Amino acid sequence: MKISAKGRYGLAAMTYLAQNYAAGTPVTIISISEKLGISKIYLEQVFSLLKRAQLVNSLKGAQGGYELAAPPAKTSAYEVLAAIELALIEKTGKAAADKAPELERALHACVYDRLDAAITDTLHKISLADILTETENQKSTDHLMYFI
What is the CA radius of gyration of the chain? Predict the structure, then answer.
C-alpha cells in the first residue's frame, strides 16, 4: 500500500479540522494551507473529494469554511483515505498464474488477501481522535529538556 501526497495531505487537513472541532467554527482552506504548509490549490482538490464523500461540510460566506461532518472519534483514517485515493488497496499482480495456478491461489490466500485485510482493518480502527491524541503525545515529547 502506498499513500499518495493527496492522501497524506487529506489526513493532515482532516486532523487539523478535528483539532478545531470543539470550537464549532468553520476553518478556511487558506488557514489550513498556512498552518500546514500545503498548497491552497491542492487543498481545494482534496476538500472537493472529502465533501463528495460527505466527510466535511462547507459553509459559504464571510464566516465560511469547512468543518467535519462527524465528530473526530467517528471518522476513520480509512474513510479519509478511501475518499481521496483512487485505489487504496491495489490488487497484487500475478506471480505464477499461468504455470502454477495453485501456487498463485495459495499466495493470495496466505499472503496478499490477509495483508490487504489487515491494512483495511487497521485503518478502520484509527480515528481522527486517535491521531489527535498522538499529536498531543508528540507535542509533550518535543518539549522535554535534557541536561547533562
Answer: 19
pLDDT tens by residue, 95-146:
776 778 888 889 889 998 899 899 999 999 999 999 999 998 888 765 665 6
| 43 Cβ neighbours under 8 A, 6+ residues apart | 9, 13, 29, 32, 33
Q: What is the pLDDT of residues 24-41, one digit of tens each?
A: 899 999 999 999 999 999
Which range marks the domain in which residue 9 is found? 5-142
Residue 148 within any structural domain of the chain = no
DSSP state, 127?
Answer: B
- Asked if 74 and 124 count as a contact pair (C-beta separation under 8 A), the reply is no
Tally of domains in the chain: 1
